[in-house]
Amino acid sequence: MNSVLVTGGAGFIGSNFVRMVLAEHRECKVINLDKLTYAGNLENLAGFMEDSNHEFVRGDICDGLLVERLLEEYSVDAIINFAAESHVDRSIMEPGVFIETNVKGTVALLKAALDKGVGKFVQVSTDEVYGSLGPEGLFTETTPLSPNSPYSASKASADHMVAAFGHTWELDYNITRCSNNYGEYQFPEKMIPLMINNALNDKPLPVYGDGMNVRDWLYVYDHCTAIWQVLTKGRSGDIYNIGGNNEKTNLEVVKRILDRLGKSEDLITFVKDRPGHDRRYAIDSSKIMSELGWKPSVTFEEGIGKAIDWYLENRKWLEHVVSGEYEKYYDQMY
Ligand code: NAD
Ligand code: DAU
Fold first, then answer.
1. pLDDT tens, 231-241?
2. Which terminus of the chain has a smaller tally of CB atoms within 10 A, N or C?
3. Are the CB atoms for 162 and 121 separated by under 8 Å?
4. Which CATH superfamily is domain 3-333 in?
């Protein structure tokens, strides 16, 4: 793997993936295409902008001509598509842009990959495409797709388009479906960094519904190593579930954050539930573990401690994101 196009590499998981590749796979050049929406942040890439192995390009994955130019100019071997509108609550407020980026943008990338003969296409998908579980059972790669939110419906549509390009034109692809990530550089609209930020500022912690919804948490670095395994060893046309076997209720996670920060549980405030809120996600990742030899590097207890400490040590990053300061910066830069 000499050259990869990473899309959405200024976002949470994408920037962690770029960091991992630049640190651990120096043989590989990273072309990082990101539109810098509200969720993209060049501060997530601090230190890499001068790295000769990293080329940052501000642009839209829907722009097929731009994508084709990059694939040709950098002789790209593989595309890893992280770029997306990723927040469920936003998709409930305004679904349109989720169709644009998540569906049409993925199709634009697929067409460009086919036209330019790119060797591998990795679609970074989500366990949410499987829908919601009852109290028992796990999502496997053969669980039927049953998305419930506009976000997950758009991701499921994209997954179908990727598979259709594989079936129709023999595009070499993989789809990864990971559970909830947490860790460094996550935008504080998502539950864990939002709760950390509010707790640090002694603001109420808004827990949806009864707080008993279950998510299966994975440290972001471990998601990145899993994607690398799929990229380099995945069987063409296969889907790989990724997860750390860390089911927690939201209330458990929130209480752990408050405990670590030494804040009172009185900050917990139960608020109106998310419409159509999926009750439980839990992933069976035995396939990627047995076939590709992947395993997580940390337990939830270790990972959440590291993540909370990172937010404590990077209060400036948090303040900039919350104040929208970095958006003003881009307006001057580009
Ligand atoms: P994020 O919202 O933090 O980052 C998304 C990035 O994509 C941003 O940098 C944004 O600027 C960029 N982007 C958005 N629209 C674009 C466009 N049209 N063209 C180019 N760039 C664009 O998201 P994230 O949490 O890092 O998620 C990354 C991917 O992983 C998504 O595809 C998401 O569906 C998937 N995923 C996320 C999780 C999770 O827990 N966060 C879990 C499983 C899968
Ligand atoms: O499962 C993978 C998915 O995980 C990814 O595909 C999505 O991109 C990612 O955003 C995430 O989706 P969730 O909806 O599970 O994550 P979120 O952080 O928004 O919410 C986690 C849980 O916490 C969920 O049950 C809703 C709840 N919640 C969330 C927020 C923002 C609250 O109780 N209060 C909040 O303020």
1. 999 999 999 99
2. C
3. yes
4. NAD(P)-binding Rossmann-like Domain (3.40.50.720)
